[in-house]
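Input:
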Amino acid sequence: MVAKETDDNQLMSQMQDLVQKTIQRTIKGVQFVNSAPASVGLTPKDLIYSRGTLRLYHYHPMSDEIYRVPIMIVMATTNRGYLFDLLPGQSMVEFLLKRGFDVYVVDWEPPMPSERGLRLADYTDDFLPTCVQKIEADCGEPDVSIVGYCQGGVLSLIYAATHTEGPLKNLVCLTTPVNQAEMGLFKIWSDERYLDVDQLVDSLGIIPGEFIERGFEMLRPAQKTAGQLRLWNQIWDDEYVRSYQAFERWGNETLPLAGEYYRDTTKELLWGNKLYKGTLKINGKDANLANLKIPVMNVMAEHDHIAPYKSTKPLLDLVGSQDKEELVLKGGHVSLIAGPRAVKRMWPALETWLSERSV
Amino acid sequence: MADDKPNLDLAAQFQEYVTQWERSVDKAYNDFMGTEQYSQSMNQFQNLQLQMQTRFKETMTDQLLNVNMPSRDDVLQIGENVRMLTDRLTRMEEKLDQLLDPEGQRVATKRPSPPRTKTPTPKADSADAPKE
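Output:
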């Protein structure tokens, strides 16, 4: 009798919840349609250096005492760096600042037509070393830790392998594809026999952001529609909507790429797999990962569809470092940086690893 | 008995349905697009499109030159020059502000950095970290 009454109560409560959410869904749906784009990247920062496509930001410290060694986060060249500072409470930068780190971010603007000739070497042998110098001058410390994300991780690895004399102290690679033979669909679509990268670069000069974005979308064709359906289902939840809008904005702001850089990365990394094989040369210097002797941390996402787990896994076998650690997390390429699992697992692990090596 | 209970959590059911649908559609597309034939066709189409685009661009540039009008590249170049000039002006303005500001304000523009003396205290620090 009591059980029957409890069941009826539960049923009533579920009915009420359903009706309430349906009403809220309607009201919030109208609000959503009229809402402004998400405000992202709100943590206070200063632009300390810019040149063409390159931007170097310094975030204002949020702690009374900070670690000696600053962190330079290197964003992937295809996307905006505010992924690291998406929303208050969903910001890796804010987390690190509150934990006492001095944080700099290397971000990218769309390259100008005159920058179509930028090569891979310009990023790894000019942009990144210049940023490191600017940070040294700004903070007065002789050491820097680098955290590179995706292609930003690849650039950081090449920089580290070709600048072994310092001042790089620690290197963290987040979802960084090292073995590009394991790049899945990207590898198949860029088959050397069919993709005429020379014609592509020579015709376009700058590879449009839409072209890059289409490539990402083709990896998960149903993702966008499924995301919109989930949004409709969850639209009564303000936090969910705020996060959705921020991710949506970030995904839509895919950056164009300098043509020569695209040609280099396709031929040297994707086709030649030279970083993995240890045969990559940058301005005559060996970019062999065995050159790396500094502490290295490799963070990978188990269900990464952009930089598949198999492409990120071999890093620690290739570096010459004694102090090396890897962390495999459930989740995908983007949620690893700014998703709920990042907040719970990745950021604290990053903090622990870096703090021990930043004094 | 428990199986007979009506499940009114339609939101959860819908969520599950969307996830299953997304997985199956992605898998079907990936199986199709992951073939060598697809890669070959896609790249052939892209090459053809690029060739047509290049020819069209050349023709248009010639036509615009004939009627004394700027081409797309010219307009982009002007845009880039404007952007570079704006950047340069902004930098000059910032430098002028720094030079003209009274001493006290100039010092204030350089944010004082906290002391770099922090040492790791994992136990205490992780106490207020979010728990899984």
